[in-house]
Write a structure and sequence with these properties.
The protein is of the alpha+beta class. 30% of the residues lie in helices and 33% in strands.
């Protein structure tokens, strides 16, 4: 019955697309339009698992109940290397002007736009935003299948669009998709190098060159085969409620997936929501232990200092863009499946004419993933981290004509053929110690290692690693 309903929906969408593309109306400037039909019994992520066409994208918000999956390209904005967001702003602005309010470009950008870039990040570019040709979206109002068109370009693509539409699989699958077996792991940096870098950072803090720097580690887990990124994300999503979940796969080679707890910002009209997230403890093994760890977090001078840098920076960066900014007077506790964080939430009203890309540029990178002062901290990261962060800790999300939502791309990994490269970081401030911060970054990837069938990465033998730079 569901199969028949969805086949009828597919035919209805094909007729709507044909009606648009068979009647050119003389558009000279690019115009984005969309048509949608209701679907039954099919979630976006389950649908994505059945699709092999790339690119593939997936996004689900943390607390707004809308999720979306998309494949193929109606339009794409990509830059291999860049020093700023000006080209993205110039290309997106006309496409987002005057279009339907619920049209979205999905994507993100690197933590730092500057090269060098390692080969496994090549497909992502400095930034990549895609308007999918086909989307499945789900909300409290139901599930729809959408087709996005860019006129006048797509007048010549009717046959190809209809062929692709007719090839879409619209039947739900319920069987679990197995992940390959993990076989070995590598750390970058290794433990001795990590200790030396943290000690270097602490000396810089003692000499007042930095207040905070966020140092990260790559844990590259080699598997017995190539994991399906959508299957990995489905397992991860089930284990990590109250997070942003995302998948960005520009080509068949690699995909960036994650379950981030941290909102960079959400925009609705001129209203902005953002938050400062810094300072953490693992979830306790019992209710009593958890309460002890939360109390320890709330009273820790070191954790409160680390959190305050993020709060101060958030207010400093938003004030020039906003008519009003309201920030929580004191941090509260964000409770996740395996961690506890200090969080301070902010609401702001943008000044007239301020765009989503203006906010994106102002807020990234925050001291939660870079450090404070931001410029010095990012320079230190680029000089001392022995791997390319790529999109890790960069903004990921979607942007529309008068709305946007971006998370910070943490608690994330790159599925790269038979590797799953996991990324995690820790804020180094006065009072930090190399051993405690090493343990913290291990705690932050535990959700990933669990869905891969591991307790920790160290359950696997360690192997040598040879990075490649492009």
């Amino acid at each position: 019955m569901l199969s028949e309903q969805n086949s009828a929906a597919r035919a209805e969408l094909g007729r709507a697309v044909k009606q648009i593309l068979c009647h050119p109306n003389g558009h000279s400037k690019p115009l984005v339009v969309s048509r949608s039909v209701p679907l039954s019994g099919l979630s976006p992520l389950t649908w994505l698992l059945t699709q092999r066409t790339t690119p593939r994208v997936y996004w689900s918000g943390r607390d707004y109940g809308i999720e979306a999956a998309g494949i193929s390209i109606a339009d794409e904005q990509k830059k291999e290397t860049s020093s700023c967001l000006a080209p993205l702003r110039a290309n997106l602005a006309p496409l987002l002007s005057g279009i339907e309010p619920d049209i979205r470009y999905y994507g993100g950008l690197r933590f730092d736009l500057r090269p060098p870039h390692e080969a496994h990040w090549r497909d992502f570019g400095a930034w990549w935003f895609v308007l999918p040709r086909f989307e499945v979206r789900a909300s409290k109002n139901g599930t729809t299948l959408r087709c996005n068109l860019v006129l006048p370009r797509d007048y010549a693509q009717l046959d190809h669009i209809l062929t692709t539409l007719n090839s879409l699989r619209l039947n739900p699958i319920h069987a679990e998709v197995a992940l390959p077996r993990p076989e070995s792991h590598q750390y970058r940096p290794v433990r001795s190098k990590w200790n030396a870098t943290v000690e270097w950072a602490l000396r810089g803090i003692d000499f007042a060159l930095l207040d905070k720097v966020v140092l990260a580690r790559e844990t590259a887990i080699r598997c017995s085969g190539d994991p399906d990124p959508a299957a990995l994300l489905r397992k991860l999503k089930a284990d990590t409620p109250r997070c942003f979940h995302f998948l960005f796969q520009p080509s068949g080679r690699s995909a960036f997936v994650g379950a981030s707890p941290e909102r960079l910002f959400r925009r609705t009209g001129r209203n902005i929501e953002s938050e400062a997230v810094a300072g953490s403890r693992p979830k306790g093994i019992s209710a009593v232990d958890d309460a002890r760890l939360v109390a320890e977090l709330q009273s820790s001078e070191k954790e409160l200092r680390e959190h305050e840098y993020v709060r101060v920076s958030l207010q400093e960066e938003m004030t020039p863009l906003a008519d009003s900014v309201m920030l929580d007077a004191l941090p509260s506790i964000m409770r996740l499946a395996s961690e506890r964080h200090l969080v301070s939430r902010m609401r702001a009203t943008l000044r007239q004419g301020v765009t989503s890309l203006d906010v994106l540029q102002a807020l990234h990178p925050s001291p939660a993933v870079g450090g404070y002062p931001t410029g010095r901290a990012v320079d230190a990261i680029l000089a001392h981290e022995p791997f390319d962060r790529g999109w890790y800790a960069g903004p990921v999300g979607w942007i529309g004509p008068d709305a946007a939502e971006f998370a910070v791309g943490i608690r994330s990994g790159l599925v790269d053929e038979d590797y799953v490269r996991l990324y995690s970081g820790a804020g180094i401030v006065r009072g930090s110690t190399p051993g405690a911060e090493w343990d913290e970054i291990g705690d932050k990837i535990v959700d990933f290692t669990r869905v891969l069938g591991l307790t920790t990465a160290t359950a696997l033998p360690e192997a040598a690693f040879r990075p490649s730079i492009v």
